[in-house]
Design brief:
Length: about 350
């Protein structure tokens, strides 16, 4: 049994993120079509402190715990999925307390079905290898990279000049740059990357999927309440009503599992397995929600007059960026290294 109450600051940040998302929603399609978040929105997000949710207070951030930060991310992404993810995914959860030049997932050995990336190595303070698929933060700077070093895994930072980035094609999230990277440089600094750090990474990633799940559920429900067939709204048919109920249950269950994992981690309990399960549940629920949204819209679900087909592609790419092997293959971003590319899953 777990219990928690939101404090006023956490509620205020979540509401701030939600309001920003609502204001940005009108530009969500534009961002996907142009391949970039409008500069004004990016500037506003920075001024509101949305890039600083998890950054330590001593580094100029808000220092929010995973529960509060995740709630803010979900609130923003649920209103403007493409913009919210493109803005925050490359920025959130940096253990170095500064924006990351490149962001990618590391599951860790045996962590709920995840394993370490096979493409990077750390030997004598030097990081070498390839990352098959990553989200690149704007502005370059210094990247943080997870390197495999046996039982003593380290999270290492190398200079931007040590990362040769190439655009990697993918099915979605076109407003965020997706890259592959060849890495060859000295590790400027490193920090342990054990169970606690992996738990934090999983907890930071799951809320993006929660946001897409909420957005798809709300859109499908509104459409089903207005669209008519055979003389009544389609939401009145049992098949549609039951499907919407199933989606709502899956989305809510995934969020509850994540909340328990975040709460237990905050209590100092070992929560790696639970956090990994929560991330996988979030991925499953988001895919189920957006895929069901496409189905409920019928033929309209496959045209860009509605956002459902874009959200489906976004979720596939987001899943690839956070360690799903099958989605990585679907995104068309497999490295020439063959099996090495599968190490992100």
């Amino acid at each position: 049994m777990f219990r928690f109450d939101w404090d006023e600051d956490s509620r205020a940040v979540a509401e701030l993120a939600r309001d920003f998302g609502r204001a940005a929603a009108a530009s969500d399609r534009e961002a996907a079509e142009t391949g970039a978040v409008p500069a004004g929105l990016r500037k506003q997000a920075g001024e509101l402190g949305l890039f600083d949710l998890t950054r330590r207070v001593e580094d100029g951030g808000l220092g929010l715990a995973a529960l509060a930060a995740g709630s803010a991310v979900t609130s923003l992404v649920a209103e403007a999925p493409t913009i919210g993810t493109a803005l925050l995914l490359p920025e959130i959860g940096s253990p170095f307390g500064a924006p990351a030049g490149a962001f990618f997932a590391d599951g860790g050995a045996g962590a709920g079905g995840y394993r370490r990336p096979a493409g990077l190595r750390l030997e004598r303070g030097r990081v070498t290898g390839r990352i098959a698929f990553a989200a690149a933060a704007p502005g370059g700077g210094e990247g943080f990279l997870v390197a495999q070093a046996g039982d003593g895994d380290r999270l290492c930072r190398v200079s931007a000049g040590a990362c040769a980035l190439e655009d990697a094609p993918s099915m979605g999230l076109s407003a965020m740059r997706r890259v592959s990277a060849a890495v060859d440089g000295d590790a400027a600094s490193d920090t342990p990357f054990g169970a606690a750090e992996r738990t934090g990474l999983f907890l930071a990633q799951a809320p993006f999927f929660h946001g897409y799940g909420r957005a798809a559920l709300h859109y499908a429900r509104a459409y089903a309440a207005e669209r008519q067939a055979f003389g009544k709204v389609i939401g009145g048919f049992q098949a549609i009503g039951f499907l919407l109920a199933d989606v709502a249950m899956e989305v809510e269950a995934a969020e509850l599992l994540w909340q328990e994992a975040a709460w237990r981690a905050a209590q100092g309990e070992e929560a790696l397995r639970l956090a990994a399960d929560a991330l996988r549940a979030a991925k499953d629920a988001a895919y189920f929600a957006v895929n069901s949204c496409v189905g409920i819209l019928g033929g309209h679900g496959f045209v860009d007059d509605h956002p459902a087909e874009r959200w489906l592609r976004d979720v596939e790419t987001l899943s690839a960026l956070t360690g799903n092997r099958w989605a990585l293959g679907q995104a068309g971003a497999e490295s020439a290294q063959g099996e090495e590319a599968h190490g992100v899953a």
